[in-house]
Amino acid sequence: MKKTRRDFLGLTGRLGLAAATLASGLFSRIAFAVDTRPAFEATSLKEALAAIGVTEHQDSTEIILKAPDIAENGAVVPVEVTSKLPGTRSITLLVEKNPHQLSAEFEIPEGTEAFIATRLKVAETSNVLAVVKTDAGVFHAAKVVKVTLGGCGG
Amino acid sequence: MPDPMRIRAVMMGDVVDVKILMSHVMETGQRKNADGDLVPAHYITEVTATCKGKTVMKAGWGPSVSKNPYFSFRFKGGAKGDKLSITWKDTAGGTRTDEVTIN
Amino acid sequence: MSVQDRYISLVAACTLLGASLSLPAEQTSEEAIAEYHAMFGDENPAELWQLRGEELWKTPRGSRQVSLEACDLGKGPGVIAGAYAELPRWFEDTGKVQDLESRLVTCMTNLQGLPESEVLAVKFGDGEQKSELEAITAYVAAASRGSRITIPLDHAAEKAAYALGESVFFYRAGPHDFACATCHSESGKRIRLQTLPQLTTSEGAQAAYTRWPAYRVSQGELRTMEWRLQDCLRQQRLPQLTYGSDVAIGLTMYLARNANGGEMAAPSIKR
Amino acid sequence: MNSSFRVTALLLCMGPLVSVLAEPVPDLTATLKAAFTDKRQATLDRLDQDETQKLCTQLRDQVPTSELSQKITRMNLATVKPPADGKYLGDWKAGEVVASTGTGLQSSDDPAKPNGGNCYACHELAPTEMAYGTLGPSLKHYGKLRGQDPAVLAYAWSMVYNSNSYAPCSNMPRFGHRGILTEQQMKDVMAYLFDAASPVNQ
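Above: the input entities. Below: the structure tokens describing the complete assembly.
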């Protein structure tokens, strides 16, 4: 693990003295203050949604959220979202039971399909939400993903 | 220097289908190493894709995107032979840009 | 019949009842796991290791400033197509049976002149610490995709390696009495939800061996057969198996030979 | 040991892969020790075999005769110590933790933490937990189906304490005999199996 630390400091060192000082300070205390975007720091679904400017949203069958019923491992959960809602501007993925609910936001410019696929960490069995901002308001779809335990020594 | 991405960009009718794999630890800052010490947070916060000077995708990520991220999206307006450029930036100031030819 | 014997019969009867009642649920969860695997499609982060491995294979390095393109993996210098499917094998120049990883160490030290300590410094990657051996193994193994496993076991030393591997496979030890065979000598069993391959049969050995190396989603790392064996033995509560040791190569030979004829499909993606 | 037993056992285990290669490796323990190194609490002495392990290795876990079977079960039954206070059942909630925990005694585990029993790796227990293994029999509704007759409790205790007391060359660890679980942990697991309020019996 020593090497990781050296690499980490080496990497930031290249960014200049200020960054290196900041990094070593972070290292001795806690490491996740580097991300200053408040929405990603939110610790409840409501707070996270508020931070991305969402107060009201309604369920929509025009959002197709694909995720497995059971994830054999929560470290990698494939998630795919297709929005058939006209004027889709963005797709946001949230995981209700994660320490921080907001996972990822995708802006959908004109000409880009309202489709994204990625893989998320899901800490425990949880609702996964796709929130879609459109010209006509905010909509969502949700799916429960069960996270199972595995292995002979874990 | 971060490792290169593996990008596939293929025409599907009039849509460019993009599939990206990125080499990144995506450390949450909450994981402990074998010695019981917290491993510092280190993850991608931003991904942008441009084609012919136009931004075709912009994503903001948190630490709960999986390690070695996979990301796929589709856009119109590209054609075979066009270049697609993907850039990511992370919490440690790291960045990487790779370019691929659409086929 | 003693009281205890009667209770054993009772336990057995109840067990059968329990098993038949729970069957539909089992199928559902196994189908769900299959669906989870299907969602990965062809998008395997192992490709990131293959890319890095290719670079390492082709870059002149070490005190001799040569690439690995003259490395003989058993099919002649520089031949990687199908080479992994024919390993482990006896090598005249070292006088040893070698698996891919130990052979790579030979090429990196003898051919390129890299210090052994440097080559072996990071056998298995962990986050920011990356392993060259894992990357090169991924690259070379990928060049055997679609090749049939061919382990003729002609040389006496290859036969001896197989015999050692087979004996170790059944060797019960440690506080938990575990052998490899404890989990891998019956078909259709699973640990938690993970199906256990029956490694004593060609079907089971093929299902397992053809899919290593693999990207482990639980770790976000590409793992090789040497890692797989070390980690099984760790979970067997045994001490640390030495990388490239005769026991590691013997076990690999046992699995590879049992998987003879199987079609390589590695690197794969696994839990 | 009769050598024909070994051949039979070998045939049973090998399925279609019957090989003529299986010359016994002369001193396997020494060969193994040369190929392993100590790692934290997982030290080389773990490669030494006790008599049960030796026999089961030779037999490849296929016990061909009742004589051998009885030899192993008798030897192991003699190790079983009933609970000091005579009470078999502890706290089912603590037992659930033991049943669900897989860590303990691996080189990577913290020796300061209690070992797990990892029952779910091999057994179905509470009907609500779907991530269960099938190497061992289902134990769903264990107490509900069997009641709490003293002989039933004593048998289950023996199986947890030393599986080889009734099942020679079992795949199941000998939790009490090998010091994997404490007496209290085994009582808690017993409660998880037998307590009417335990999820196992719902």
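Note for the figure: Residues 1-22 of chain D have pLDDT under 50 and may be disordered.
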